[in-house]
Write a structure and sequence with these properties.
Elements: E1 5-10, H1 24-33, E2 38-42, H2 51-56, H3 58-70, E3 74-80, H4 81-85, H5 109-129, E4 134-137, H6 144-147, H7 158-179, E5 183-187, H8 197-206, E6 213-217, H9 219-223, H10 229-236, E7 240-245, E8 247-250, E9 270-273, H11 282-291, E10 297-300, H12 309-323, H13 342-349
Parallel strand pairs: 1-2, 1-10, 2-3, 3-4, 4-5, 5-6, 6-7, 7-10
Antiparallel strand pairs: 8-9
Helix pairs in contact: 5-7, 7-8, 10-11
Length: 351
């Protein structure tokens, strides 16, 4: 068995205009000062990385890695959550998602999609140049808006056609990641066509069970769906290659439940919380991932609707550290063992 690496922190929610949150060097120094050992880098923020340059220049990638290492940290993964979202967008959401791409691609779905696909391919090469073996992203969604709930009744073949198209778009990307020795880890997330185990299985089948179509495990999204997030690890552990440590709570009322009633996060029955403030059983999560030999990073993603992010980060590093299980190199009952041989075993069995 392997010991989970960490604690890591996803930088996306912490970037800002003021120091120390406005450059790779200063935010890494801040993260290290409060106990983190790794950073997951959002690749869409030019203050942190030039994704294309990291793909095309090993020298530049080494410079980025050097900045992180100088702070006493490692890069856990790159993230293309925003670009991955744009690989597949239902027309109902197209204008709302334009902000995820540079202005020159707005109001041009084809050009924006091509840009997103190229971004993912750059991420494959950049990950290789940085010495990484896993990558975090979203799948995008063609079906979510019109077909998430089966009313009106879905036309026959609609879901199959949607997943066939999603796989068609992702297969060239998955093959590029495969060529670079990197796993694509889809964060299973509402708003994506890959939002639970059943939808992930549909996608996996449509890609011919592509070896690089893997998973980013985040139990917070499953709490909000009332999905068994521990059994999920039992089912999909062979595909889980990345891990977001994020807490959540679900407190349904007589007025609102899973769908949230269009309410703000603070008023929804299901809402994200800082680590330790929600309902996720992280002792069991870390135990199961350790049992199944997860060898990746435990990366804090902070999205609490109440607590200040700096407090959430300061509390999050020791929370993760205290949950990581340092695996043993010997069995607890070795002291009672005895040397045996084949003849001895046969005598014990009476054969």
């Amino acid at each position: 068995m392997k010991t989970i690496k960490g604690p890591g922190i996803f930088l996306a929610q912490f970037m800002g205009d003021a120091a120390p949150f406005n450059s790779l060097k200063s935010i890494c120094e801040w993260a290290a000062s409060i106990g983190f050992k790794g950073v997951q880098i959002p690749s869409w923020d030019p203050r942190l990385i030039d994704l294309q340059k990291a793909a095309e220049s090993k020298t530049y990638a080494d410079e980025i890695k050097g900045i992180v290492n100088a702070a006493g940290l490692e890069i856990t993964e790159l993230s293309t959550h925003l670009q991955g979202q744009l690989v597949a967008v239902n027309p109902a959401f197209t204008e709302m998602f334009d902000g995820f791409a540079p202005a020159q691609y707005h109001n041009n779905i084809q050009a924006r999609t091509e840009w997103a696909v190229n971004q993912l391919k750059y991420a494959a090469k950049a990950s290789r140049n940085l010495g990484l073996n896993a990558h975090a992203t979203f799948s995008g969604a063609l079906l979510w808006a019109p077909a998430m709930y089966p009313w009106p009744q879905r036309p026959a073949g609609l879901v199959e056609a949607g997943f066939a198209e999603l796989a068609k778009r992702w297969l060239p990307i998955l093959n590029e990641f495969d060529a670079n020795g990197v796993d694509v880890c889809y964060e299973i997330h509402p708003g994506e066509d890959l939002h639970d185990g059943a939808s992930y299985e549909r996608f996996l089948e449509a890609t011919g069970n592509h070896a690089r179509a893997c998973l980013l495990y985040d139990p917070s999204h499953f709490v909000l769906q009332c999905l068994n997030y521990l059994e999920y690890i039992d089912i999909y552990h062979e595909r889980i290659k990345a891990f977001h440590v994020k807490d959540a709570e679900f407190n349904p009322t007589g007025r609102s439940g899973v769908y949230g009633g269009y309410q703000a996060w603070i008023d929804r029955p299901g809402r994200f919380r800082s680590l330790g403030d929600g309902q996720v059983d992280f002792k069991s999560v870390f135990s199961k991932l350790t049992q199944y030999d997860f060898a990746g990073w435990a990366v804090m993603e902070w999205e609490c609707c109440m607590k200040h992010p700096e407090d959430g980060a300061r509390e999050g590093a020791p929370f993760i550290k205290d949950h990581i299980i340092r695996v043993t190199e010997k069995a607890f009952d070795d002291f009672a063992g005895a040397a045996t041989d084949d003849a001895f075993n046969k005598r014990v069995l009476g054969i």
